[in-house]
Structures are given as structure tokens and as C-alpha cells.
Specification:
Two copies of one chain form a homodimer. By secondary structure, chain A is an alpha+beta fold. Chain A has a domain of 114 residues: Jelly Rolls (Sandwich), CATH 2.60.120. Helices cover 52% and strands 21% of the residues of chain A. Chain A contains nine helices and eight strands. In chain A, the strands form two sheets. A four-stranded antiparallel beta sheet of chain A has the order 1-8-3-6. In chain A, strand 4 and strand 5 form a beta hairpin. In chain A, helix 1 runs antiparallel to helix 2, helix 4 crosses helix 5 and helix 8 crosses helix 9. Chain A is globular and about 55 Å long. The model of chain A has no long low-confidence stretch (mean pLDDT 93). The structure holds a DNA duplex.
DNA sequence: CGCCGAGTTGAACTGAATCAAGAAACGTGG
DNA sequence: CCACGTTTCTTGATTCAGTTCAACTCGGCG
């Protein structure tokens, strides 16, 4: 996977449409720098964009009734992140999207993107692929949470987000895994002992 | 929500296409009775159909490394169920789909359905809606598992599947919630005590 | 140098799992 | 329609994974 790829290049590699047209489409969308800590979506707002991360790292998370944060997804370079429930059904979002590093993000107008399918069927196919990828991830996540222990989930996290592991505080990893930072610390200790024991 | 609706009627109500064409499309797909206990998909197989439940009840579940079952979804009347990861990416499924009651199920050929979009754009839109609904459910599920206690998840289950609650053994509800049947029994006891106390 | 946030460690606690036993409900065949 | 065996549900005792709270370490960084 390439780092720091511009969206146009990413799409040219994944969508069978004339590169010039892709560049034209991408140019019509706003690309913005987002500073660490800034929000792209806040609870209660309607999500009007798909965000593509060209540089940096975002997190997609909720805050529960006790004030605890739960990270549903990380979005490093070349990832999309969007609250599709909010964007598609026009409902206020229950989630936040925030930059964890100084980032460069393309804000794809959801309306515009969905209309693109009419002119470019290949775009519909690509969007479809994104949706199926999204479903794949979410389903795996549900199955993980139902089937695996904290330690097993941590190992799978490393597989999925090897780079993210090194870029965020462990508190955030714990929040993604659904455990406390203290528990993650102990899980890591156990794993490293087990590893050195063999 | 209507019970025992045939797929054609369901689609006529949800897709703006000539009813005759819809009937013709549905008639081209196989509808089959499925006895309680029978499987529509087994681990390792590639999922080649979307299943629409006209009558009865299905479950979509996995079995973990310790042999425990984890139900990802129930599908009562008018629900679709499909392993989209397997169907779309052509990968062997990690899941099972099984009838929990004697059921009547329409087996929609995934290939055929996706090609329908070419002739009937309204079908593409409908498929899109199904995908977004799927994402909505899965995302809620992840957020629930991360944010709520067993008791809270049980209450939300009742909201989502009021009828299923009465049709399956509590063991299955527990498996959906990610707890043991014993724990569910205690959760229910606590809730009923709390309820009668006020 | 001293502060500060992140990570670790410890001890007590808690929600849920496990194991085991008994009670209730269920459906199947006589 | 009853009797039987099986499955499901409940309850209790114990164990365990993970939480909570608190203290301490460590590595930057002003």
C-alpha cells in the first residue's frame, strides 16, 4: 500500500475511467488541511461528506452515556471514513470524526458522488465496492467482539492497522478494542512474556 | 410491518418499477420451503444467494475456535440475509445460515440481481438502500457491543426484534447478545424485579 | 530542573462465565 | 390426552477476565 497518495491517483488505480475525467471530478471537491484535534463531524450534525485521507490519521468514534469514548474506526492514509447512516438517511450523527494528526483530507460531497453514477457507471461499481468493503469490515468487527478475547482482538488489530499501532497512544487502541488502557497494558505484557518464553 | 408478504409484493411496495416486471423478475428466482434445522449456507461454502424470508425465521451465525455459536443476525419475515463478504468477493464463508422454523425462502441469485441494475436503474437504487441498511445495522451492532452492558443490549434487542424474542429459545438471544444463557436469565430476573419495584 | 501526560503495576472489586443441579415447558408417540 | 424424555430455563457456588482506583515510573519538553 502506498502512502501519501493523492485521491486522484488512488481513483485512477481503482476506477476504469479516463484519468482526465477523474482529475476533473476530484478537482471539483474540496481538499483541506486538518490540524490535530480538529473535528470533521460532530455528534448531532448530519454527515455530508465522505472523507478520504491523503495524509495523516483520523478516528471515528462515539461517546456513551457515561462519557466514555469508543473508537469504531481509524482512517490512516488512503482510507475513507463516513457515517453512512447519517449521510444516506439524512439523520443526525451519533458519532465524531476527528484528526489524530495534522492531516490532509478530501471532502467528497455525498450528494455529488451519488449523482456521478448516472454519468459514469464505473463509478457506481466503485461505490458498490466501497460499500461492500465497509460491510466486510463491520461484520468482521461484530464477529470479533462476539468471538474473541481482548488479547486475540489485540493481535487482530495489529494485523489490520500495523501502522496505526505506532502512531496513536495505547489509550486509543484500548478504546477501539473495547477495553481499558490498564487492561491493554496487561494484555501486552502477557503476550510479550509468552513470546519470549518460546 | 406486514407478515407473510410475498417478495413480489414487498418489492412492488419498495421499488418504483412496473409491477408486472417485478413479478416476472421474482418468478425467475427459486422459492423453496426450508425445514427447521436445515442449512442455506455452511461455513466454507461460497454464498451465492441473497435469501428473502417470506415465512419463518433464519439465523446467521458463526462458530468460534472453542465451538461456541455467535448469532450475527436473525431474519424473520420480510428480512434479507446474505453473507455479502462471501457473495461479493467470492470468498468461502465463515458463517452459517440456518432455518429456526419451517420457512419459505426466496433464493435470489446474487449474479442475476447485480446484473438487473443495468436494465433497471431503480433496482440499483434499491440495492443501494439495502446495502446502506445493512451498514446501519452492523454499525449499530458494533457500537452497542462497545458501549452497552448486557442488560442494555437485551432491551435494545427487544426493540429491534420484538417478535423474534417470542419465537426462539433464550439460548439464541443470549448468543446474539454475546452472553451465556445463564447470564441472560439473571439479566431478565433483575429487569423484571426493577420493573415491578417502580 | 521540574512538570506532565502516557504507560505500568498493584489490590480490591464486579460483571459475566463456568460448572452443576434442579424445575419447568415442550413435543412426540403411544 | 396422557406419559415420557428432551430441551430450556432457573438458581446457586465458584472462578475468571476485565474494571476501577490509586500509586508509581518513565520519557519528553518547556
Amino acid at each position: 500500500m502506498l502512502n501519501n497518495l493523492r485521491l486522484a491517483d488512488y481513483l485512477i488505480a481503482h476506477v476504469p475511467i479516463d484519468p482526465d475525467i477523474i482529475r476533473q471530478i476530484v478537482d471539483s471537491q474540496k481538499t483541506a488541511p486538518v490540524s490535530k484535534g480538529e473535528y470533521l463531524l460532530m455528534q448531532g450534525e448530519i454527515c455530508r461528506h465522505s472523507f478520504f485521507v491523503e495524509k495523516g490519521l483520523l478516528r471515528y468514534y462515539s461517546i456513551d452515556s457515561k462519557g466514555k469514548e469508543h473508537i469504531l474506526q481509524f482512517a490512516p492514509e488512503n482510507w475513507f471514513v463516513v457515517d453512512r447512516e447519517s449521510a444516506y438517511f439524512g439523520k443526525p450523527s451519533q458519532y465524531f470524526i476527528q484528526a489524530l494528526e495534522d492531516s490532509t483530507v478530501v471532502m467528497l460531497d455525498e450528494q455529488f458522488i451519488s449523482e456521478l453514477g448516472a454519468s459514469y457507471p464505473a463509478f457506481t461499481a466503485f461505490n458498490n465496492k466501497l460499500l461492500h468493503n465497509h460491510i466486510r469490515h463491520l461484520q468482521n468487527r461484530v464477529n470479533q467482539l462476539l468471538s474473541f478475547t481482548a488479547g486475540e482482538r489485540y493481535l487482530q488489530f495489529i494485523e489490520l492497522y500495523p501502522d496505526v499501532l505506532l502512531r496513536v497512544p495505547q489509550t486509543m487502541v484500548a478504546s477501539y478494542l473495547g477495553i481499558t488502557p490498564e487492561s491493554l497494558s496487561r494484555v501486552r505484557k502477557e503476550l510479550s512474556q509468552k513470546h519470549s518464553a518460546q
